[in-house]
Fold each of these.
Amino acid sequence: MVISTTETDSREILSSTFASRYVRAAIPRFKMPDNSMPKEAAYQVINDELMLDGNPRLNLASFVTTWMEPECDKLVMASINKNYVDMDEYPVTTELQNRCVNMIAHLFNTPVADDKTAVGVGTVGSSEAIMLAGLAFKRKWQQKRKEQGKPYDKPNIVTGANVQVCWEKFARYFEVELKEVKLEEGYYVMNPVKAVELVDENTICVAAILGSTLTGEFEDVKLLHDLLTKKNEETGWDTPIHVDAASGGFIAPFLYPDLEWDFRLPLVKSINVSGHKYGLVYAGVGWVVWRTKDDLPDELVFHINYLGSDQPTFTLNFSKGSSQIIAQYYQFIRLGFEGYKNIMENCMGNARALREGLEKTGRFEILSKDVGVPLVAFSLKDSSAHTVFEISEGLRKFGWIVPAYTMPANAENVAVLRVVVREDFSRSLVERLISHIEEVLKEIESLPSRVSTKTAHVIPMVNETQGDKPLKKSVRETQEEVTRHWKRFVKGRRAGAC
Ligand SMILES: Cc1ncc(COP(=O)(O)O)c(C=O)c1O
């Protein structure tokens, strides 16, 4: 690497191009450079490389907040050097976190009295929150089994196959078997009846999702609760429920206040929510709240005594930034219930407009529901020649990042596109996106199918057979083949579902 810093370089500097004023060779990728460089150069080099990242505002793959008010940005920058864990030094920040926990717990109808502290903690995101909630369930179940003199080495957890990857991580990292209810074509969330059938004496909890990552649909927590209550009565077990409200936790209280999914249901013992999704804070904050103190085993809690008062902590990591907690508190007091409600209504309105625009093309089937998280998941009605993966690719040209993916077991043959409608995805951007999708459709249809004719040959009949051997592929088999082809094609390039 050559850095132009001396007088003798001045002639060269004048005749050099913009970037080579600073650096003429690639920065080493595997070892730290031997020498320092001027701060302006370091800034320029990094800033230039980052220009090749996508634009977060056009990233429709993610639920995570990409815009906050400048006043909130200012608070974030002012606290960027505060380590959250230094509670002695930053007691006000700790107090703001506790206020956030209380506000969230009350939003979720905690049984804790209005003037009492709720039980919960700020985390890096819903993933950490879920690890903590899962650990609490595992420990509670083990304690009970030990007391009963029963084996406690085979815990399991029941979820839908649509769970986000963090549940699989929890299961693997903390050695809990994941018992997944398979999806069905046309039904893309956990079926409560089947979930309760999977529950046995080793089930530490059933996890329901309020706002499926794949389609935004709310699972029927009330039905799950009623069925599980009945099973508990019949068996003498007391299997609890956790609600993964990563996205829906900041939607349902404002848009569907009568929907019973939270602590109003007695078996719901803990709930997680991502502050950085519809909590409207930049990436790096989640929350988990427990129904009561008894639902969080005390041996998992570390007690820190700061300024004379007990501060219980239960997190996986030690140090972390304070900015996100402060930003969350800003959003709560700045917007209030009224402000959140307005924003969520607006997001829903934009999701509806997008949905209608897509329906008008006549080409898409909408998989997301009217009630749920403001997102639109849609598949092509006919994917015999072209697929949603090509549409996703085509939209990249305009700067849009719209993920295409296949559904989990047993609906793998269904491939969808998903657009998450965040606060900063305005109506005019919705209209632009629709017109770009129309353009992409026209463009790909003018091209020959990129799927081999063999693969693309869809036969609209279920298996014709000769003896017991199928003669032709069924629609489903063909779709699966087309999808496999495209998954290979876009592997490593498409955004995953977050
Ligand atoms: C339902 C659900 N649970 C958990 C997560 C993980 O959340 P986080 O990214 O906050 O860790 C997500 C992320 O999208 C999600 O959709």
Amino acid sequence: MPEKKMHMKDYYDCNYLGSHHFEKGQEQIFTIAEVKKMEVFNQKTNSNSNKMIIHWKEKQLPWIVNVTNRDVIAKLYNSEFPDDWVGKTLYVTAVKVGREFKDAVRVKNFIPVTTLQKCDSCSAEIKPFKGFSLADHIEKTKQTYGKQLCTECATKLSQEKQSEKKSSYKPQGDE
Ligand SMILES: [Zn+2]
């Protein structure tokens, strides 16, 4: 990871994953290693309360799972028993929620494509593009080009298609 400036929130509590650990629009795929029940100190209420904590297989801070995210995970993996979630993967991202547009960590409500996805054209690893998730990106290139493509190849193909259109255009007359 490149050297980064320290976020103000990290001056207070850097024990858990927070929305400030994500770049704008960044989605990350994490694998659940363990789901624990833990007492966590809440600065706002100045007291301890029980929380669900997910630890990841990836080198990443553990995450305090709120009710919203908990329910999404339960639905995704069709189990209300967190032990069943171990080994499963999640798309995690930061979003704005509520009337105050507060940043919050959210799990997306679809199962991530976790195996390495290779471009059918150049065999490079396909990475998510702009606002699209990897799954969306692959779906789109399949629809448009009939195969899964990396961003570079998809761009190249779309340019070729455009220039083909131009060259097949035959001005009338002159013959
Ligand atoms: Zn490619």
